């Protein structure tokens, strides 16, 4: 069947109904209807809820996580990621048939077209102008976000899906309107900016408590990012960096108005149970212990579609890694430690360079698990028998089982002291160049201990926009606009916050804050990229961070030996999926479909 990027009026589809804010999602299937349904209040609300739900494809499943993180300076492939799509992305041997690139390509166009439908039919719906403008603001934000996810990966992509630019279509279309590339790219960016300006003016000013409905803060965040991205692109405008700065500063200077603020403690931003805190501007909603309404029919075996398995992908092989006199201290998969799928592992750049200071800067400890204690899934008599075995080798539940020391010197001290638990220093962490251990610092930002089974997908929301990134974007925009001094207080706000740890005395905290401050002589793009890792490591941003800024090749060659050999400048874009290229019917009858492909992939 040929690839079609069109949306067939949602006939025979299921529309996911959000039952209001954080309440349980309710499914209400409609098996036969026409576009007239969009003209009703129920229909237009159902459509916008479905457009929200579509984002679950882009944040959390394996393809999305790999596409955003793999093969960067931050992450390479783990010991179980040495084949298929993971290996291809991690070594920059990426064919146009790679499975991960299909994630945004196959999913986002239908949702863009759904947003087009909402914007076409919403004016005809009988509801208040405020409610109508809110729905159109949501649709325009979501359309811009879907386009951003495509543009940052593939470059110029079609605005015309068969019926005109940004116009809803309900007929099959086999053209491919992405030529000439630069002209289409300019239209892409302007369309995203127009959508987000509208959204920033018409969405609710604040996000509702305990929910991830869109608000003006999310729109301002994404608008600043699009201005910043365009400033690095072939479609750049001379005012892009200044506009990015102004947009970001609108949010920073008016945090109370928009209902957002930085948390005092970095470690609490991603803490389970604190998913709706003020620093988070927008997350992709999922609900704990509700796989049906999270749209994951096979939660123990489903890695793609809408399953959030991010926590599992970043988890190393702690299971049976620590054994004392034949007794394994963790021989199953306790809920708090996630499922060790071992697809994504940090590079030494992360734990040796960018987080070299693990004392004054609390963000490493706030981002990575380096300590596993003795734990089990056993219950009843089986649990008692296990506790007896542990006691026989001098251990009990809760004792340290595995510790990843911050330095080799500290690891040597602990080993010399005769510690019976497993101690590993940075030079011993697993890598594709040192496979002795299958243990490495495991990103814990997505940890989920509230699951039905130890193999289950996560029911936590997936963060996509935080206020801290707005500070980083404002600092970067100021730098690129020729005002590096204006970047310093923005960066220092985050760095001084990063000095905080619960329990520090006032004097110690003050000293650590002083040590964290930087001055204008240290501000350049590489420093800001390092700071983005310290603040945002593993948050499905990094590949675009590097590719959009044309820093991918340089930093992969410096910091990622698995990708260094093959990475080239053309890898700043992904290949258009081969099925799409094969399906194109050229309007002039030209049989050379490769003209639609990105250079380097044909």
What structural keywords apply?
two-stranded antiparallel sheet; 22 helices; 3-stranded mixed beta sheet; mainly alpha
Radius of gyration: 24 Å
What is the residue-mean pLDDT, rounded to a whole number?
Answer: 94
Q: What is the count of β-strands?
A: 13
Quickly count the helices: 22
Characterize the structure shown.
The protein is mainly alpha-helical and 602 residues long. The protein has helices at 41-54, 62-69, 84-91, 102-121, 129-154, 181-202, 216-232, 240-252, 255-258, 310-313, 348-354, 363-367, 380-392, 408-416, 467-480, 484-498, 506-516, 525-536, 542-548, 552-559, 561-564, 578-583; strands at 14-18, 25-29, 75-77, 280-284, 323-324, 327-328, 344-346, 368-369, 371-373, 400-404, 422-424, 442-443, 462-466. It has a 3-stranded mixed sheet. A two-stranded antiparallel ribbon has the order 1-2. Helix 7 (216-232) packs antiparallel against helix 8. The protein starts with 13 loop residues before the first strand and ends in a 19-residue tail after the last helix. The relative contact order is 0.14.
In brief:
The chain has 602 residues and is mostly helical. The chain is 41% helix and 7% strand.
Outline the secondary-structure elements.
Layout: E1 14-18, E2 25-29, H1 41-54, H2 62-69, E3 75-77, H3 84-91, H4 102-121, H5 129-154, H6 181-202, H7 216-232, H8 240-252, H9 255-258, E4 280-284, H10 310-313, E5 323-324, E6 327-328, E7 344-346, H11 348-354, H12 363-367, E8 368-369, E9 371-373, H13 380-392, E10 400-404, H14 408-416, E11 422-424, E12 442-443, E13 462-466, H15 467-480, H16 484-498, H17 506-516, H18 525-536, H19 542-548, H20 552-559, H21 561-564, H22 578-583
